[in-house]
Amino acid sequence: MKINIAVLFLSVAPLSMVSQLHAHSINGEHLSGQELALSEKKIQVSSNRNVAVFQLYDTRAAAEFYRQLPLELELSNFRQAQWMFYPPEKLNITDNEAYHDGKKGELSYYAPWGDVFMLYKDFYASDHMHRLGVVIDGIDNIAPMSGTVAIEKY
Fold first, then answer.
1. N or C: which end of the chain has fewer CB within 10 A?
2. Which residues, if any, are the signal sequence (predicted)?
């Protein structure tokens, strides 16, 4: 019976609703950041001799963030789980970027505040958090960062 209801819903739902449904869940399970393709773009984030390298997803927001580099910005700690900073220009986002796993090593954008953040501990996920990238080197170097951070193309 569940399949019939889903088929009926998908056959009458507007295409935009179907794509949003697909972007956030399949069979009731949230999609992870791994569902997005990774781009060739990589960035290096460094602070106090701690360096982490992130590979960016192939998304509009990640590309816009990459174009703003290099940057030197002040870090702010949020709930002892993430370092956040504010790029000079807000990022344009799309619905299919609006989910992240809330896992250590993610680089995401919180649209309501306009900040980019790096998780150094697992944290909650929200539809307002837009995935930008994932750490590929230096995951344990994120937590000890503080003060000013340098963000560069890698």
1. N
2. 1-23
